[in-house]
Amino acid sequence: MTTVHFTCPDCEQTIEVNDAMRETILESGCPVCTATAAEGDFAVTCE
User: pTM higher than 0.70 for the full model?
Assistant: First the structure.
């Protein structure tokens, strides 16, 4: 199973995201502090 985590470069909050959430974060920024997000802020892990 593949899991994707987003870690905000500003507030350092980490959350697990799905594909739809990932796209929204890339468009709108961090859901906690609204900082701009980039592809490099997402980490994929396989379990």
Answer: yes
Query: Residue 28's CB: how many other CB atoms inside 10 A?
Result: 11
CB 44 within 8 A of CB 7: no
pLDDT digits (tens, 9 = 90+) for 10-46: 999 999 999 999 999 999 999 999 999 999 999 998 8
- What are the residues whose beta carbons fall under 8 Å from the beta carbon of 47, sequence distance 6 or more? 1, 2, 3
> What is the rounded distance in angstroms from the CA atom of residue 47 to the CA atom of residue 26?
24
Which tokens go with 34? 């609204």
